[in-house]
Amino acid sequence: MADTNGKAARPSADSVRLRMAEAGIAAPDECVPGVLANLIVLQDHVATLRAFALDPRSASAMRFEA
Amino acid sequence: MVPFAIQMAARVRAGDASAVQLVTAAFERAQALGNERSGFTRLLQRRALAKAAAVDKLVEAGIDPGPLAGVPFGVADLFDVAGEITTAGSRTRSKAAFASRDARAISLLEAAGAVLIGTQNIDEFGYGFVTMNAHYGLTRNPHDPARVAGGAAGGSAVGVATGIVPISLAFDTNGSLRVPAGLCGVIGLKPTYGDLPTAGLHPFVESLDVVGALGRDLDDVALVRTILREGAPERQETLRGEIAFGRLMSWFDDNIAPEMRGPLDEFWNRLGRVSFELPHSEIARAAASVIIAAEGASLHRPALEADPMQFEPPVRDRLLAGLLMPSDDYLVAQRFRNWIQARLRRQFELADVLFTPAAPGFAPTIADPTMTFEGKPVSARSHLGIYTQPISLMGLPALVLPLAGDFAMPLGVQLIAAAGHEPLLLRAARQLIDKGLCAVPQLPSEG
Fold first, then answer.
1. Domain residues of chain B, as ranges?
2. Is the confidence at residue A63, as pLDDT, over 80?
3. Which residues of B touch chain A, with CB atoms under 8 Å apart?
């Protein structure tokens, strides 16, 4: 089972295996620790982003220019 | 050390040197150094010598080959070169089709008389800051071969620092050319997002990727930019007297290594000790990381599905993690990116040019490629770009210059201007060089 940390559940080795299978990725088990570590880093980045709530109407997500 | 590009071209145009001689000398130097120390992965001798001979024939016929006549240059192995596989630093592309034509940036430089001599090493798919590539080898820092060159475009910085070529074309997604420029002691220009042509550049993160240039002389870098812009008009600049510099604090002042702090403070003192905040930079870095993971994973999904073990482990694991992120996380990151870009337009009402370190300190060692972040040792592969990443997300132009001084290793400063204000950035850099605050260091063998 995934551990929970605040609102978002922390991924676990088992959840990584399951999500990779659902995504159609047949990766050997030796990949799981590295993927899990990176997924946790990304989850922390997302938490940083979500803590700064932006109204979707105040900024588009679809403009790609400076 | 070989002369700068503009001087080289002047000699060729005047008939005082031949392009074939210049290109042959570049090959000899690259071969003498070998792959790890030259930064080159492939030398394109037949193509280059034919092109150089054509340049010499134009001169003999009284025709000007262009402002880069006979100047040898290299490209990061992410640019298409006609008839070659664009490896992007990855074994997953070892059976890819040959490129049918040169990348636009290569064509433009060659139309100005320059001669492409080879491809240069990168981190796999540009995903890293160290240029330690499991498939194509590592690239050593020319100031200390026991240290990393920085990355992802480390080979392009080393090719320039070693004097094999006066200019290299590279890319910058998140600091890819700025980090190695800082660590190898050369000049690196990352333009405003969308300013220079990316056609024929193997994509990594399309909403961040830009084409940029590395050199040892500011005028060379500026000339490359001018050529690549194909005469596009510059954005109107509002002149307000002397250039106002400001140091960015908070995120950009945290995690600075001791060897960088003193020289950076001295640089700041000489520029008037004005400081600014760039709010939400840590969120910008987080957004950049999410965008890179998501776009990189999507781009490489077919290869990940086919055989994830073909990737080198650090890249594979980062891409697989990116593949598992919800799409909403990516859109939140993109939304923040557009929000902060709009806010930033007002930041430059107070200062013309902002500056930060290019990297936290000296290049880490190859034996232990780590650095200190928030008091803990972390991977340099993923963290050396802490000061460049937020600027990429904001889409701003940045130029890395080496700080002048007698340091054990190069230390680079990152100058930042408002979007589209590269001419101001280049003027600021010229001012810093003329004041003696910035200078390209000699290699130990030249000292």
1. 1-447
2. no
3. 192-194, 206-207, 280, 282-283, 285-287, 289-290, 293, 304-305, 308-309, 313-314, 316-318, 320-325, 329, 331-336, 338-339, 341-342, 394-396, 419-420
Name the phi and psi angles at B377, rounded to 5: -70, 130
Q: In what order do the strands lie in the sheet with B210-215?
A: B40-43, B115-120, B72-76, B167-172, B210-215, B187-190, B398-402, B412-416, B353-357, B245-248, B275-276
**Helix, strand or coil, per DSSP, at residue B106:** helix
Q: Output the pTM of the full model.
A: 0.95
Partner B, chain A 10-29, Cβ-Cβ below 8 Å: 11, 16, 19-20, 23-28
- Structure tokens of B53? 């001979």
Which positions in chain A touch B308 (Cβ < 8 Å)? 25-28, 31
- Any idea of the CA torsion for B16, B19, B25, B29, to the nearest 10 degrees? 130
**B365 CB-contact burial (10 Å; exposed 0-12 / middle 13-18 / buried 19+):** middle
8 A C-beta contact, residue B38 and residue B163: no
Bridge partners of B99, per DSSP, are B82
Q: List beta partners, residue B118.
A: B43, B74
Confidence tier at B347 by pLDDT (50, 70, 90): confident
Chain B contact for A8, CB < 8 A? no
ipTM above 0.90, yes or no: no
In whole angstroms, what is the distance from residue B177 CA to residue B172 CA?
5
Model pLDDT for residues B1-25, shown as the tens digit of each residue = 668 999 999 999 999 999 999 999 9
Tell me the residue length of chain A: 66
Q: Which CATH class is domain B1-447?
A: alpha beta
**Helix, coil or strand: residue B408:** coil
- What is d(CA B33, CA B51) in angstroms, rounded to the nearest whole number? 24
Residues 6+ apart with CB under 8 A from B91: B135, B310
Min distance A3 CA to chain B CA atoms (Å): 17
Is residue B64 a contact partner of residue B55, using CB atoms and an 8 Å limit? no
